Please model this.
Amino acid sequence: MPQIETNTIARVVVDIALDREFEYRIPDSLNDSVHAGSQVVVPFGRSKRDGFVVALSGHAQHADLKEIESVVGEKPLVGESLLELSRWIGRYYCAPIEQAVRCVLPAAVRARDVSFREQLFVTLDPAAQSDAFVDALRKRAPKQATVIEILKSHGGMFLQELCRQAGTTAAVVQALRTKGAVQAGTRTVRRRPEMDREILPTAPLDLMGAQKEALDMIRTSMDTGTPPAVLLHGVTGSGKTEVYLQAIEYALSQDGGAIVLVPEIALTPQTVERFAARFGDRIAVLHSHLSEGERHDEWHRIHDREACIAIGARSAVFAPIHNLKLIVVDEEHDSSYKQEEAPRYNARDVAVMRGAREPCAVVLGSATPALESYRNAKSDKYGLAILPARVDNQKMPHMEVVDMRVEAQRNDGKPCAFSKRLIDAIHDRLAKAEQTMLFLNRRGYASSFMCPQCGYVAGCGNCSVSMTCHTQDDTLKCHMCGDVRKLPERCPECGDSAYRMAGIGTQRVETIVGKLFPKARVQRMDSDSTTAKNSHQKILGKFRTGHIDILVGTQMIAKGLHFPNVTLIGVIYADMGLHMPDFRAGERTFQLLTQVAGRAGRGEIPGLVIVQTYTPFHPAIQAARRLDFPGFYDQEIEFRKELSYPPFTRLVCVTLRSRSAERASFLAEALAKAIEPLLPKAAIMAGPAPAPIEKARGYYRFQIILRSSAVKKMVDAVRTAVGNTKWPSDVTYAIDVDATSLL
Ligand SMILES: [Zn+2]
Ligand SMILES: [Zn+2]
Model:
């Protein structure tokens, strides 16, 4: 092979699913413009394709290379460290490289048909500045005079905004243009999401002792790289956000930038406002509800260094912030940080990896840290900062556990939805004009439709789950695939009309509350009641202003909301998540109860939380009642250790899907046999076995679950075995490294 000069070869990922990097020669004419991170056009087969340069090299592995045809844009879209991060994601999460690259380069940025929006920008001619001119104009053309006055105070403005403020039309501005009093030219408008309101700026608050210590640790991490990550364990209401804000301020004072990750559900205008109030235009917002255009513009505001703080959900961890000094992952335990489709990355873990590579400081904040993170902190891999008390002398809420088995005995053995204790407490709050939140993590009216005569249960034809009754529109719905049927009037099997709706959902809670407290103003908030745009905000607004007495909801109301007048929280059925076939069931229940409890007593009046359960002595419920995270951790970590579950091992879940149960089962057996001899020592393999939800959306699902502390070897074993398997077109597979959902 002939000797090739330095960096004349580009490794290019082409925008189609091939899981490969291709080599192209860089022609002399493009030598200065092709970099790692450049978007390029390359010949591919007989066509031309968009591609993305992931690396440059001086040596080709193949002969007879084709040449890059052209470069798109003036500078590379992302830098080397982000490229390296995407390649790490491909390797670690066992994902094709082009999918991993798509993470760092969102569709709105890659797509060439999304571009900046140009609009007319109007400026004032110096000749029209004089008071005499305006005075003369005011008599003959008052509207034109208004336009001039607005331009005088603002300097220049987009035509649309100018017309809006002057309460006039473009024709008026055009008339001024003809006179030569104003000039107009095109300029790029940035589409800004959620920024059309005035936000009052805030100044840094005084920190309490523990907050100061936390901030010091984060600053030290930024200055010295040690500790590489800080776990900020603070009870709800302990002022974590103020610590984040001041840490960001420090990063900015060092000419750096920051990323703040928030769970999707908590990324409300309320959250964004707190950051906007401190940092104004320096923040950019990235999340999945933006339009393509908004996302394109926000990304470019970051890329062009107009914004130096990115705030967003999961994918914002890839924001191309210049001189990144800090990544904050708020509610770091939240399951929404894990992407459910390939690449199945966890944004918290990617943040820690990015932090090590940039390098920059990483802060993981939570009231209920994930066991993985807390163990890293206890073993000094991360720094640990603790905020043990609420700010402003707010007391922690008091939690009472009510044994619903005893309630059922009182009720002639029949289970009931509301305990006497909870009913009394709600009456008391209504009398005092204080507010109540009732929490149940299941929407709909009842969880199943069943016939006591013949035992029939309405199940979904596509999924192995029962259908949920929705009485509002008299339907049965599958919460897995969305299938809808009319609610039958009698049993479809035996024709009996004495069917039962078993189990309870938020609709039923709302109905019961309406009967128990006829005078109370009740509102339900779940994904069924918030389908209309902004209905979510409207409900919260009504609640905040005291137009709702009792708010009933799913986990939508569990996170990040602060209402000073809420003094009572009722958890209708705390056991719901406990009986899931998942080793994290206890941890999730503890987290959820703690989060829900955090909504109570955020004002001056202390809060009460009433937890209704059929398993009152479950360790997760008892630990939550005592607000005792370390106690919960000590107990749970023993159980994980004994059974070799994470954090003592890493877990890989391989799921095979097919419309044919036999085919999926057969391939799963073959794959398991191929994986087994390749596994590292002491690895544990469970399955293949049908997944807990055996059938979903018409596909049968089989799982192989692997556990080992040697994650790289384990992933390699899976990758090799999957690569050696001949996959028929009717069976597909998904590899989930560090899986968080095992259903
Ligand atoms: Zn029947
Ligand atoms: Zn279904």
Summary: Residues 451, 453-454, 456, 491, 493-494, 496 surround zinc ion (ligand 1) (CB under 6 Å).
